[in-house]
Every structure is written in C-alpha cells, then in structure tokens.
Design goal:
The protein has 73 residues and is mainly beta. It contains no helices and five strands. The N and C termini lie far apart (44 Å). 3% of the residues are buried. The mean pLDDT is 85.
C-alpha cells in the first residue's frame, strides 16, 4: 500500500512508523511489531506492508534542526 503525505505543510517531518513485523500473523503470531523513524516531506510516498488483521500507525512531528556536533568547531 502506498501512502502519499501531501497533507503535510512545508518543511521536513519526523515519522515514527509502528508496523507489523515480518513474522506477524493474525492467527499464530499477532504481537510482533517493528518501529522505525524516518524523515519525510509532503512529496514523500511511504510504502506500507499490511498483514491480514494488522495495521500501521504513524506519528508525525516537525523535524528539529540538529546542531552540528563537530568537536573541531
């Protein structure tokens, strides 16, 4: 399944994606989840794999600028 996030405003967002793990099965193994974090923009298309009876949740927050941690600066 493809999810286009055009509804986002300008800028970058941090997406926390909670999804069914590769070995999730609604019948035999319903609990495993994978959590990943990625940066998205309104032009991003997320590809989601859904298992029968499963799902995905995505938490979107504005991305915070990370200051440089260069020890030489």
């Amino acid at each position: 399944m493809s999810l286009v996030v055009r509804f986002l405003g300008p800028g970058r967002y941090r997406a926390e994606i909670y999804r069914d793990a590769a070995d999730t099965s609604w019948h035999d193994n319903p609990l495993p989840i994978d959590v990943r974090t990625t940066t998205v923009r309104s032009s991003t298309v997320l590809t989601l794999r859904l298992v029968a009876g499963g799902g995905t949740a995505i938490r979107l927050r504005p991305a915070q600028h990370q200051p440089s941690r260069d020890p030489n600066s």
